[in-house]
Amino acid sequence: MKLSDRLIGPVLIAAGAGVIYAASRLSDVPGVRFGADLMPTICGVMLILFGVVITRAGLRDAGPTVSIAEWRVPLPQLLAALWAIGGLVAGGLLFEALGFVVFGVVFMAGLMLLMGARGIVVALTGPVFVIALHLLFTRVMFVDLPAGILEGVL
Q1: Distance CA 58, CA 65 (A)
Q2: Closest to 134 measured CA to CA, from 103, 113, 109, 112
Q3: Highest mean pLDDT among 2-11, 31-40, 120-129
Q4: Which of 41, 111, 113, 116 shows a CA-CA span of 20 to 30 A to 84?
């Protein structure tokens, strides 16, 4: 399989448009100055801009396509990439049921272990970081995150 910037750029543009569309469907958060769609819209615009830059470079240079068969990735990094992609899919399906904290700790711990972090670092960093993020979003930014199986505890 071969990829070219002439193909990757339009894919990023389409992804950015999809993010902006999805962001426009988010409901407003009462009591905040900016709506829930602000950050996703900014990310969508950035995806579109990067897509335009990559497409222009691909059309201007018209260089050779890159063969994916030539890529050599060490197994731990490949597994980490697959974990990240699988985590995004699983997150879409299980996020409400598991909740932000449980899903975040499991996802982050798995990724850190696959990237070679020591167990003690994973055990301390993952939960502390995810709980701090949860508190930031729920207490400071008033974003309602799902509690999932920790309903009543959080």
Answers
A1: 10
A2: 103
A3: 120-129
A4: 41
Q: Are 24 and 53 in contact (CB under 8 A)?
A: no
Domain boundaries defined on the chain: 1-72, 74-149
CA–CA separation, 81 vs 115, rounded Å?
10
Using DSSP, state whether 3 is helix, strand or coil. strand
Note the pLDDT tens digit of each residue in 86-100.
998 998 899 899 999
Rounded Cα–Cα distance for residues 95 and 89 (Å): 10
Do 147 and 95 meet the contact criterion of CB atoms below 8 Å apart?
no
What's the Rg (C-alpha) of the chain? Answer: 19
Tokens for 128, please give them. Answer: 């502390």
The answer to whether residues 133 and 85 touch, using CB atoms and an 8 Å cutoff, is no
